[in-house]
Amino acid sequence: MTQSIDTTCPQGRLTLNLLTSFAQFEREIAGERGREKRAASRRQGFWYGSASPLGYAVVQQKLVVEPQEAAVVRDIFARFLTQPSVTALVQELAERGVTTKRWRTKTAGLKGGATFDRNALYKLLNNRVYLGELFYDGQWHASTHEAIIDRGLWEQVHERKASRARRTGVSNRQQSNEEVFWLKGRVFGTDQHAMTPWISSSRRGRHYTYYVPQQDIALGAGQSGLPRLPAGELHAAVLAFLHQGLRNPDTWFAALAPSLTQRADFDRESITQRLQNFEQTFDLLFPGTQRRLFRMLVDKVVVGKDQIVIQIRPQGLMELIAELLNLQV
Question: pTM surpassing 0.70?
Fold first, then answer.
């Protein structure tokens, strides 16, 4: 860093390359030593982090069973086998006032203590720390802390969980999420939360697709008070809205920027005619092209208890007009 090296000559470039290589070597050695130290500490049962899992406390950097919390964890595992659904278990935990781990940060603040939702419940049920294991070197290993859940109960719970498994998304099916859920990321409830693409379990060999409120996924069906929308029906409603707007685009023109509508070559009559002609051929387009136009024209779909509000994307409409008229925008 302090020595001046003349890199205009071969000897200087060789020196610089040698120094850089040794610096990279030293960096990799330091990283490897750090990883080995952390793995060795894990093998000895040391816990890193301020928050321990529910059921444990951290004493001298090691996990120690906290009897009252451990009883809650065992009860959750046992009740998972007896309750008819995860939603029922989440509701029961909420009624009993059972919360997630509550801990104090290094700055003396309190965190955690939230009501269990589906995500928090599954995180607890999948945590192999309760089997007396810790995660390092890319996999779980036996550790020195005491297990809270015996392996027999663990296996029963996970067999039951696998039998209840539901599918969200369709990323490993023949079609991708984007091919099935044309409005992914653009459908919101009146609670301002995005609605999640959801594919049902197989029913008579068929899967059904929905946009589901996030609160219903986290806390159980019906908790949000918003409807669960079949994807096909929502797409059909949006398609009807686009057809209507293309046939009568006056309300859409009001949303366009003056920099476009005030141009000398912006002929409202001609553009209206082009949009109306395009509307007549919309249904004949390939699905991929229709999907692109959905994403281009629809900015947001807001779902309420008894109505759906569709918001057009002005920039997308400008892009469509530019494509139809070959304008520079």
Answer: no
